[in-house]
Design brief:
3-stranded mixed β-sheet, about 40% helix, Zinc Finger, Delta Prime, domain 3, Rossmann fold, Helicase, Ruva Protein, domain 3, about 650 residues, about 10% strand, disordered N terminus, 5-stranded parallel β-sheet, alpha/beta, 5 domains
Length: about 650
């Protein structure tokens, strides 16, 4: 074996670039290795952000509880393949000082180098994306029964295992459940939900976490020091955020960024231009203008950033990130920290003070819908401008608290940030349902007005000017449903909802488990179609009973009261198995006078004795309530066993 230091003088010279014997011939000691490969962890201790997994594996190896199959899952670039190779090294670790599985890989064992270079005969790597069929799996498993050539274990590493076909998974199951003692399986996937549960149940699963922006920026800074590269801290923060938790993506971006400025320092501006990102400071300026309802300034800033090279979807995504940070700052207060420059954190806190948490949630929904619109729009730039204008309009609307204060003041007016003028927009489609209420205050919805390029938030019209019936209570809503023959919707409201807050334009409730999932949409559509104004239908906590439960309680109380009447008590005593099924008043006005009580005998087949002549059997006809209908003192039957003359009961 020739020693690696014994090389010929002309070794390392490229024969295609000048004379091999020239003093100026360039040396090629190897092709350039990208940072993502150069700084791939060679020990478990080098892994960034995966402390939980490393701790579990350390304990497993220490106690000898090493399973036969591992499932590694996580997003791209978090170290699944690297972890698989480290596990293969740990399982087959063998050095002069230690001969056995070990999580400590320093110093490297005799198999380590070959495993990391994917050339060890006992470590078989399969790319399931290119070999998905059952024939490929059978070919792979044919070698399972053979002992390892050189190492302790034969390790099968299957990357992107979710790409295997159903037949391939089925072929794998039996071997995976009871593999030979010398075989270990390591699977890696980015789509864990596509892996059959029968496979998952046979593996020990590890979820590799995304790297936080702080951890990733710190890791990139250490690599820059090692490489002697000068990259601004703001630039590293941009790379960390753009990588979305993927170490490989971050190193690939850093690799590209280092060559941007050649020998000079790479600035955040260089990285923004390279990635097509908008300036974070300008994103704050844009969001500030939108939140203050300054449509003109917001539109100009959006156009300027798009013309400067920012991509439409990236711009909206940056606004989404900014709103998310704004909401985090509101929730965390003094504990809030930002993975970036200090001035970014200050701007975020400043913006957080200009909106309520409810408004921040509204902005998020507007931008999230806008992000999808940009993806579908024929011109994403125009779509981005419209999204920003929509955001500014949403910021001009009053909050529920402001609307309540305006209502309490007895009048309507523009919300802060809005301006008057213009004609109100049309309300939603009007319904023809009857008006069931005549009392109460005004509405609580909104109408958008346009004028001078600014959106104006107005209150809903007063009830007397409402385009449809004014429904302020649950009773009025149910009455309108009966009139409109909304049988199914009325049944759901009465039986499966506990009312919380019911007002004109707002319906909140607590759903019971039996309530269908599409109830909010059906309820909202019917209310808006019937009243002609916008309604909010939301879930809220309520301990109140449903209308059906209230009616049942009233009926129970009513029957209990009827049972106290001497004649009714006497009838129930005469027929122990009878029960009251109906009580109604017979006078036209329903106020006092004669009442009617209907009885029904309960069936009891178990107690019926056919040999007993006195047992009349389980029939309801033994007691005929019809003989005692509508009784009063003047028309009682002649053969009256109960003394119906005494049945007149005054209210």
């Amino acid at each position: 074996m020739t020693d690696s230091s014994d090389t010929l003088p002309d070794e390392g010279l490229d024969p295609n670039t000048g004379s091999m014997f020239s003093d100026n011939a360039p040396a090629t000691n190897g092709a350039y290795q990208v940072l993502a490969r150069k700084y791939r962890p060679s020990r478990f201790e080098d892994m960034v952000g995966q402390e939980a997994m490393v701790r579990t594996l350390t304990n497993a190896f220490k106690t000898g509880r090493i399973v036969h199959a591992f499932m590694l899952t996580g997003v791209r670039g978090v170290g699944k393949t690297t972890t698989a190779r480290l596990l293969a090294r740990a399982l087959n670790y063998q050095s002069d000082d230690h001969d056995g599985p070990s999580i400590k890989l320093d110093p490297p064992g005799r198999h380590c180098q070959a495993i990391m270079e994917s050339r060890h005969p006992d470590i078989l790597e399969l790319d399931a994306a290119s070999r998905t069929g059952v024939a490929d799996m059978r070919e792979l498993l044919d070698g399972v029964r053979y002992a390892p050539v050189d190492a302790r274990y034969k390790v099968y590493i299957i990357d992107e295992v979710h790409m295997l076909s159903t037949a391939a998974f089925n072929a794998l199951l039996k071997t995976l459940e009871e593999p030979p003692e010398h075989v270990k399986f390591i699977f890696a996937t980015t789509e864990i939900r596509k892996v059959p549960v029968t496979v998952l149940s046979r593996c020990q699963r590890f979820n590799l976490q995304r790297l936080t922006a702080d951890a990733l920026a710190s890791h990139l800074g250490n690599i820059c020091k090692t490489e002697g590269a000068k990259v601004a801290a703001d630039g590293l923060a941009l790379i960390a955020r753009a990588a979305e938790g993927s170490a490989r993506d971050a190193l690939s971006i850093l690799d590209q960024a280092i060559v941007q400025a050649e020998a000079d320092e790479v600035t955040a501006e260089d990285i923004r231009d390279m990635l097509g990102l908008a300036d974070r400071t300008r994103i704050f300026d844009l969001l500030d203008a939108a939140l203050e309802g300054r449509h003109k300034d917001a539109l100009k800033e959006t156009t300027a950033q798009l013309q400067a090279g920012a991509e439409a979807q990236v711009l909206i995504k940056d606004l989404l990130d900014a709103v998310a940070e704004l909401a985090r700052a509101q929730a965390l207060g003094d504990e809030y920290s930002f993975a970036g420059p200090a001035d970014w954190a200050e701007r975020t806190k400043s913006l957080a003070g200009k909106a309520s948490p409810a408004q921040a949630s509204r902005y998020w929904k507007v931008l999230l819908q806008g992000f999808e619109d940009c993806a579908r729009a024929p011109d994403p730039s125009v779509a981005a401008e419209m999204v920003v204008l929509r955001l500014a309009a949403a910021a001009s609307l009053p909050s529920p608290e402001e609307a309540a204060r305006i209502l309490a003041g007895g009048g309507d007016g523009p919300a802060p940030g809005g301006s008057g003028g213009g004609q109100p927009s049309k309300p939603p489609a009007q319904g023809n349902g009857p008006s069931t209420g005549s009392n109460g205050g005004g509405g609580s919805g909104t109408r958008a007005s346009r004028g001078g390029g600014a959106a104006v938030a107005m209150l809903q019209p007063a009830p007397e000017d409402a385009p449809g019936p004014v429904l302020r209570s649950l009773g009025e809503i149910c009455a309108a449903m009966q009139t409109d023959k909304q049988v199914n919707l009325l049944f759901d409201v009465e039986h499966y909802t506990r009312p919380a807050e019911i007002a004109y334009g707002r319906f909140t409730y607590t759903p019971l488990p039996e309530l269908s999932a599409d109830f909010p949409m059906r309820m909202k559509n019917w209310l808006e179609e019937t009243t002609g104004v916008e309604w909010k239908v939301d879930e809220a906590h309520s301990d109140k009973k449903t209308l059906a439960e209230l009616r049942e309680d009233e009926e129970v109380a009513r029957i209990a009261e009827i049972k106290t009447i001497p004649e009714v008590a006497e009838a129930l005593a005469a027929f122990p198995q009878a029960r009251i099924v109906k009580v109604e008043r017979l006078d036209d006005d329903g106020q006092g006078g004669v009442i009617r009580v209907d009885f029904s005998r309960r069936r009891n087949y178990d107690a019926y004795d056919a040999s007993d002549e006195d047992d009349l059997g389980p029939v309801d006809e033994v007691f005929d309530p019809a003989a005692y209908e509508n009784v009063d003192c003047d028309d009682a039957p002649v053969d009256d066993p109960w003394g119906a003359d005494d049945w007149d009961q005054e209210d």
